[in-house]
Specification:
The protein is α+β, with helices and mostly antiparallel strands. The protein is about 50% helix and about 15% strand. The protein has helices spanning about 5-10, 40-75, 105-120, 145-164; strands at about 80-85, 90-95, 125-130, 135-140. The longest helix is centred in the middle third of the chain and has 36 residues, at about 40-75. The chain starts with a helix and ends with a helix.
Length: about 160
Amino acid sequence: CAHPESHRAAMTVHAEYLIQSPAGGPRDPVDWNPEFSRRARAFTVYAALRTLGRSGVADLVERCCGRAWQFAESLRTVPGVEVLNDVVLNQVLVRFTRGGQDDEDDDAYTLAVIAHVQDSGVCWMGGTTWDGRAAMRISVSNWRTTEDDVDRSVAAVTDAVHSC
């Protein structure tokens, strides 16, 4: 890119659930594409309904929600992992703690775990802020996500918890 700072400034979206990478930090895909500015989002919904039908879309949503629930239940068994939300859709919020530390230390630890998972290349889980504290945001939105995919991802998170 000839003008990376201008490009990033034009494409960056600011939202509480999106942790922005500092300038010069890791490249955040959100800052480099116009995905959030596309207006024809309803077209994909129409195409999905037309192709899958109402029950097909319902099955797809149920599968994604089921995989999110699997993430939460699996991660609850890992020491130092706190699932922050009731999983009712396809989103899971997770915080990592070492016990006995303050929120600031746990924030740094949580961000380190997120970076380790992202660097592993196994899966992509982003960061967010929940009640003023750093958290990992797991969003299951791919219809092809399987139980085995979740197991591999949980293993990557567990490895990060032990490595950071």
